[in-house]
Design a protein that fits this description.
This protein is an alpha+beta fold. Helices cover 52% and strands 16% of the residues. 29% of the residues are buried.
Length: 410
């Protein structure tokens, strides 16, 4: 629509001065221009504006939550002579919006095109609102999957704790029954020993292989293993769900948490080739190579081989009968140490499993953070992490055989 066409239309519907003073007149001026004998062949621009107006009404409901915050009070909006205000819409390929001459020339003559321009802005905001709704729905969907995975995992953790508590109560009941029978038989010395074992389990969860409780202890171990397997499956499901939903950061957090739990394990014991009556075991929280002479010794010589705490490609050893304890070196002495999430502990508790230094059929365990240092049983039976001196004696003392667990806890 050219300037003369628009001006003639204004003269037939109201003065340009009144249009400038009352922004409500401008839409009627545009409508009148459509019908005037001067502009019938120039109606494409205004028809486009009408189409955009209808679109604005149709998406009004979608826009409501996001855009109704914008005050719809009358504002004045001069359209500059170069048409910059309208140019931003052309990228969306609305044909009417690509032509700015009519609005530009009218602005130069002093007409305030407030409602028309605001309608254009509303149309743009309508499009933005639709995009925002789609984006919001996508975000909400991902958040729901995130929340759903976490909620299911929390339920699994609660179930895991309940199963552990139930297994613990059953074993405590077995201890109480054994003490009752020993007292009835006046076997006081045995009662004292069982009472000490009961205290260690009740206060610290330590299993000491109490004589007469082999079956209840094995049942306890199997129940704990079953609870772990259930929680492990829940972690796997949550990590997969979050990964599929694109929640990589949360999935990574859960994977780290799951790795620290070290649920994927193998029960095993370590003996020494040529000295098969000696097994690596803990006693007083330090490691020795000793013969087994009791159920307690068999438990102390049984470990869980798990992925390395500092590197999944290496290995770590979890103490099976002392909760949350791993074999780790401290001042190069091999000990049973409570788990610590710090890097220092993780490295001290991680070893590279390599071909046996002294035997082709055995294995050796090299310190992860002290290359060239290996787990070694010295002549006095103490287990240390020592530097390989290349001697035949050292290679023999640093070589072990992985065997079936001495105590089948599950």
């Amino acid at each position: 629509m050219n300037a003369s066409c628009f001006n003639n239309a204004l003269k037939s519907c109201g003065s340009s001065k009144s249009a400038a003073n009352n922004h409500q007149i401008v839409p009627r001026a545009l409508q009148c221009a459509l019908k005037s004998k001067y502009c019938r062949e120039k109606n494409r621009n205004v028809a486009g504006l009408d189409l955009l107006h209808r679109a604005d009404i149709e998406v009004g409901e979608l826009r409501q939550p996001f855009l109704r915050q914008i005050p719809l009070h009358p504002h004045s909006a001069d359209v500059g002579s170069k048409g910059h205000s309208v140019g931003i819409f052309s990228a969306f390929r609305h044909a009417p919006l690509g032509r700015t001459a009519g609005l530009t020339n009218t602005a130069q003559r002093g007409v305030k095109c407030v409602p028309a321009m605001f309608r254009l802005i509303q149309g743009f905001l309508s499009l933005a609102g639709v995009i925002l709704v789609v984006s919001a729905l996508t975000t909400i969907g991902c958040a729901q999957q995130h929340d759903g995975a976490d909620a299911q995992l929390e339920k699994a953790k609660v179930a895991f704790n309940e199963q552990q508590d139930a297994a613990r109560k059953r074993l405590l009941a077995a201890y109480a029954e054994l003490l009752k029978s020993l007292s009835a038989a006046n076997r006081m010395q045995e009662s004292v020993k069982v009472g000490e074992d009961l205290k260690a389990f009740e206060e610290k969860g330590i299993l000491l292989g109490t004589q007469g409780l082999q079956k209840p202890i094995s049942e306890y171990g199997k129940a704990i293993k079953a609870a772990r397997d259930g929680l492990s499956a829940s972690y796997d499901a949550a990590i997969k769900q979050l990964t599929t939903a694109g929640q990589a950061a949360r999935a990574s957090e859960l994977l780290k948490e799951y790795s620290d739990l070290a649920f994927k394990s193998r029960l095993m014991s370590l003996t020494m080739p040529g000295k098969r009556n000696l097994f690596l075991m803990h006693g007083g929280y330090v490691l020795w190579a000793k013969p087994m002479d009791s159920d307690g010794a068999r438990l102390n010589a049984t470990f869980e081989l798990v992925p390395g705490l500092a590197n999944g490609g290496a290995v770590s050893f979890r103490v099976v009968n002392v909760p949350d304890h791993f074999l780790a070196h401290g001042d190069f002495r091999l000990k049973a140490v409570r788990f610590d999430p710090g890097d220092g502990f993780r490295k001290n508790a991680t070893f590279k499993q390599v071909k046996g230094l002294g035997s082709g059929t055995g294995v050796s365990f090299e310190s992860y953070n002290f290359p060239g240092y290996f787990i070694r049983v010295r002549g006095n039976g103490e287990a240390w992490v020592d530097k390989n001196d290349g001697s035949v004696a050292f290679r023999s003392e640093a070589t072990f055989q992985i065997t079936e667990p001495r105590y089948r806890l599950w």
